Amino acid sequence: MPSPRFTGRPSDMLRAQLVGRVRAVFNDIESGQKPVPPSDNALFERDSPIRMVHADVTSMMVGGVRGLLLQMLHPHALQGVLDHSDFRTDMHGRLRRTARFIAVTTFGDAQEAEKTIARVNRIHTKVRGTLPGGTPYSATDPATLAFVHLAEATSFLEAYLHYVRPQMPLAEQDEYFRQFAVIARKLGASPVPETRHEAEQMMRDMRHHLRASPQASEIAQLVLNQKPEGAPAAIQQAIGTSAVELLPAFARAMLGLRRPGIGGLPARAATSLMGRTLRWAFRQQ
Q1: pLDDT of residue 66
Q2: Where is the ER-bound oxygenase mpaB/mpaB'/Rubber oxygenase catalytic domain (predicted)?
Q3: Is pLDDT larger for residue 241 or for residue 89?
Q4: d(CA 190, CA 193)
Q5: Rounded alpha-carbon distances, angstroms, from residue 10 to 13, 22, 24, 156, 197
Q6: Could you read off the pLDDT of 54-90 as tens digits, one per residue?
């Protein structure tokens, strides 16, 4: 059978190709997962801050990498990855699963979102063990979950502010934290910030719980250098460079990473261009 003939405009064909490539990276094609259709019966209303922030593909990719790098500085979160994740061969699988979780809980039907959250909670009950010093850890620990959430929320918003909407009003930023807190609490996280100020204060308070380690640095290098299947190397480099630049200075130092500086300008420019291109490609998707 001959291939179907594309009868639309060339720009429509380009949009379809770009959207297909991005969705191939963010969805597990082998398991038959399909893109999450936006629902009017989601946990959050259309055009609310959380749906605006989580809808931007490029800033979410940058924020996802930034958040994972931050999380690896928490000894309990790090040990959970070391003990219960095949991170050396599937680090980007973790990012894809996080992206899928965010998509379902932000845009999907509320009942499906609740099922997804319940499934993650069941998985967390099996993630437990002991730190090298003998301290027990568990993925159900409210304080550990709180830091994982904090790292994600601050990273997604920081990337969105940097690459999409620098003038986002503070009231909308606060609403973003309040909305994202709904999901965090359903996962058992506590305490959870509900404003940007609370998130900044919580990050300062958490500093003394974070630790530099060879293992955290190893995972950082894997995240930044392991090429996910289907993603061009140039895109990976641009996203990684942008994520490192947006990290707090203390986190870069603890992970042994340098701020890109002038040498990172091409990658940052590429990230900005990629963001504009993907926003064009995903319009009305």
Answers
A1: 95
A2: 53-263
A3: 241
A4: 9
A5: 5, 19, 21, 33, 47
A6: 988 888 988 999 999 999 999 999 999 999 987 777 6
Residue with tokens 């640095």: 217
**Residue 33, SS3?**
coil
Sequence-distant (6+) residues with CB within 8 A of 280 are: 15
- Angle among Cα 58, 118, 19 to the nearest 5 degrees reads 25
Copy the structure tokens of residue 85.
């994740």
User: Is 147 in contact with 77 (CB distance < 8 Å)?
Assistant: yes
Residue type at 120 in one-letter notation = V
Strands, E assignment, 20-118 = none
Tell whether omega for the bond before 136 is within 30 degrees of 0, i.e. cis.
Answer: no
Helix (H, G, I), strand (E, B) or coil at 2: coil
Query: Cα separation of 119 and 121, whole Å?
Result: 5
> Token pair of 95, please?
């990012």
Task: Choose among 284, 242, 60: nearest CA to 160.
Answer: 60
CB under 8 Å to 169, separation ≥6 — which residues?
A: none
* CA-CA-CA-CA torsion sign (9, 15, 18, 19): negative
- Map out the domains of the chain as residue ranges: 40-281
| Coil, helix or strand at residue 103 | helix
**Location of structure tokens 């064009």:** 280
Report which DSSP code applies to 40. Answer: T
What pLDDT does residue 3 have? 38
Give Cα 120 distance to the centre of its chain. Answer: 16
- Residues in a beta bridge with 99: none
pLDDT in tens, 146-186: 999 999 999 999 999 998 899 999 999 999 999 999 999 99
Q: How far from 167 is each of 75, 171, 278, CA to CA, in Å? A: 35, 11, 21
Structure tokens at 238: 């641009």
* CA–CA distance, 221 with 69 (Å, rounded to integer): 10
Q: Which ranges of the chain does DSSP label H, i.e. alpha helix?
A: 10-26, 49-55, 57-71, 75-84, 87-107, 110-124, 142-163, 170-186, 196-206, 214-225, 233-246, 249-255, 265-281
